[in-house]
Amino acid sequence: MAIDDRVAILFLLLLSLASNCLAYRPGDIVPMSKMGQYHSSRTIWHDMIGRHCPMFAVNREVLIPIPKPTGYTGADPYKLSFQVGREKFFVPWLLVINRKSPEVPMIDVHLRYTGSDLLGVTAKVVDMPHRYVELHPDISKQFWDAQHWPKHVLVRYTWEEQSEIDVASGFYVLFGSGLTLSFILSIYILQSSREKLARFVRETVAESNMGGGGIAKVE
Predict the structure, then answer these.
(1) How far apart are CA 30 and CA 48, in angstroms?
(2) What is the C-alpha to C-alpha distance for residues 82 and 71, in angstroms, rounded to an integer?
(3) What is the pLDDT of residues 29-57, one digit of tens each?
(4) What is the dihedral sign for C-alpha 88, 91, 93, 94?
(5) Which residues, including other chains, have CB under 8 Å from residue 158's CB and lie 6 or more apart?
(6) Those residues with Cβ within 8 angstroms of residue 107's Cβ, 6 or more apart along the chain or in another chain
(7) Which of 37, 98, 104, 147 could form a disulfide with 79 if both were Cys (CB 3.0 to 4.6 A apart)?
(8) How confident is the model over 171-192, as pLDDT tens digits?
(9) Closest by Cα among 79, 90, 72, 77 to 33
(10) Nearest alpha carbon to residue 143 among 108, 95, 99, 104
(11) Which residues, listed in sequence order, are joined to residue 29 by a DSSP beta bridge?
């Protein structure tokens, strides 16, 4: 087999392995980063540690710390934004401090997935249910204390599995897989045919030479 053909097949195999490496498994940490905004000043994106991130296909609640923003006076709202997953799904600005509500905020994050793929993320700020306040009284006390930083906000991750049965998508996947297999097989068949044809030509030429040399001249 030619070197170029081997390189092409190796490249296809590496692509297949890379797609498998990017797949999530239940319980895997889904990477997440956050950015804060106060006044017109924004922080850079900060990667969140594992225990604050969502876990693939696992519903759970976590407490994330909110550091005191530079120049904070308490007069203006403080917002957070998130990027979720290796796919970098973007969550727009969420108002978490000074949102003109007497209730402690909670961030409700809804994640959609199918199989091993993360499909999308949405989030909104809601009032923390009273049962959570009763279970975590310190959160409420520290949240309203203007001198206490960092503050903590409860984040609830809820996962929704969507059906993998999609006729159109399934057709495209099968079609693409068929094309890939056909391409690989065609390379093998073409290379094999070339080798057989070359061998046939060599053997034919050799037999012709041998036959020509064995004919006796009659006078």
Answers:
(1) 10
(2) 22
(3) 999 999 999 988 999 999 999 999 999 99
(4) negative
(5) 59, 108, 109, 110, 111
(6) 64, 80, 94, 96, 123, 124, 125, 126, 153, 154, 155, 156
(7) 37
(8) 565 667 677 777 777 776 766 6
(9) 90
(10) 104
(11) 55
